[in-house]
Amino acid sequence: MSKKAGIQGKRDYTPSDADRLFVERAVMAGSSIVTIAECLNIHDDTLRKHFRYEIVTGRERLKGDAIRVLLDSLTDNSLDAAKFVLGRVAGWSEKTVNEHGGIGGGPIQTQEVSALDRINSKLDGIATRAAEDSDPSGTERI
């Protein structure tokens, strides 16, 4: 006898309606068989034996319920539901375009800066800060 069976060994287990509902919802939520069995304090083999239907059909029933809700939304002329179906089934997508303008609504003015110019600019900034930090009197600042 395994250690788990010794702890949870219920040879006369009879599932209740509440247990069936719990197992169905736990399977729909994606819980593992071992976790569900531990919650019911039964061995996972016992769970598989008594709740085969709930385990096999739980996820499919969840998908069916979700599809029913979506179809009900479509028949109620829900724009969001229609967009969802078009996006998932028909490959349709919405694209957001952001337009930017320059000063006074004119075109954006760009200036090309080479990598060498960027490096020289940074080096100039470093040299300027170093010159500002040095004391012309030759004494060290504290």
Which helices and strands appear, and what pairs or packs with what?
Layout: H1 3-8, H2 17-28, H3 33-40, H4 44-50, H5 52-75, H6 79-89, H7 115-133
Helix pairs in contact: 2-5, 3-4
Mean pLDDT: 81
SSE arrangement, N to C? HHHHHHH
Care to count the β-strands?
Answer: 0
Cα separation of the termini: 79 Å
- Helix count? 7
Secondary structure: helix percent: 55-70%
Note the main sheet.
none
Tell me the fraction of residues in β-strands, as a range.
under 5%
Shape: elongated
Calculate Rg over CA atoms: 34 Å
Q: Structural class of the helix and strand makeup?
A: mainly alpha
Describe this structure in words.
Helices cover 61% and strands 0% of the residues. The protein is built from 7 helices and no strands. The longest helix is centred in the middle third of the chain and has 24 residues, at 52-75. It is elongated.
